[in-house]
Amino acid sequence: MPRKPARTIIITGASAGVGRAIARRFGDAGDRIGLIARDEEALRDVQRELQARFAHAEYEAVDVADAQALFSASERLEQRLGPVDIWINDAMETVFSTVADITPDEFRRVTEVTYLGFVYGTMAALRSMRRRGEGRIIQIGSALAYRGIPLQAAYCGAKHAIRGFTDSLRAELMHERSGITLSIVDLPAVNTPQFDWARAHLAHAPRPMGRPVEPEVIADAIYRVANGGFREYWIGWPTLLTILGNTVAPALLDRYLAAKAIAGQQTDVPLVPDRTDNLHHPVTRLHRTRGSFSRGAAQHALLVPGDVARAATVALGAALFFALGAAASRRRWR
């Protein structure tokens, strides 16, 4: 089978977690990789890792919340790697806290990185792609873009906003008959370093809600999505059940999360007072692909287009109602 031509892939949040795993996956496929994050030392480490695997990787250390710095970084990466074929927005921040305890400054910072960082990254991608009338933008979303949970109001709000922004832009590009495509990929809990370095106002150290998947699982899925054509993809049964469950019974989920999600996002280990966090400054020593919850983490996950999952659910529901109706009719005629 002939090798595909190398593409230029730019990834934000590429120094750790899902972004780092994505960089490795595309690098292994022979693509040219542009790495964006705040921590230059961590980016240099990722670059060396990719180069050891014979991938061409370049980096720019900027904060995605700084629009002009991000635009300039994108242009410099293009000069070294070539026009952007695929842009992947992944950079994020979170604060584990109730709304009562989070400060306005903390909420603003999470929103600037996790929402506006995606907006600015998308704008940077469009600056390159519009000149050629083609390209692909992938937004790393979350099941929490549909269903907010306790202790992560800022993050959930940002993920909801990303979905609205992306839907608006997609319709504009379709109206223009542009060859640029957008997809959102909604993730379940993932075993990344965010639980080790996120700021938290909790009694105990944070942990993923439920069973997480490993970042490499997500990276493999994103690699497949890069060649896909659907507007939205869901990874893992928890994502599918959360989104569909919230559509059907949001009040039931309110009660379930109120009862389970506070304790479900905390370990039994007391939170270290004044632990180092990455909200305003990177924590270089914790930059790695996996977090601290590999024990029991899933090595595989379902990948399904959101539209297919919705259609299948409607079809199954219709079949169930038809079967129930037929059974009731037979009983009446006996």
Automatic annotation (TrEMBL):
Keywords: Membrane, Oxidoreductase, Transmembrane, Transmembrane helix. Pfam families: adh_short. GO terms for molecular function: oxidoreductase activity. InterPro entries: KR_dom (IPR057326), NAD(P)-bd_dom_sf (IPR036291), Sc_DH/Rdtase_CS (IPR020904), SDR_fam (IPR002347). The chain crosses the membrane at residues 308-328. The keyword Isomerase does not apply. Residues 7-193 form the Ketoreductase domain. SMART domains: PKS_KR. The keyword Metal-binding does not apply. GO terms for cellular component: membrane. PANTHER family: DEHYDROGENASE/REDUCTASE SDR FAMILY MEMBER 7B (PTHR44196), DEHYDROGENASE_REDUCTASE SDR FAMILY MEMBER 7B (PTHR44196:SF1). Belongs to the short-chain dehydrogenases/reductases (SDR) family. This is Putative oxidoreductase. It comes from Bradyrhizobium oligotrophicum S58. The lineage of its organism: Bacteria, Pseudomonadati, Pseudomonadota, Alphaproteobacteria, Hyphomicrobiales.
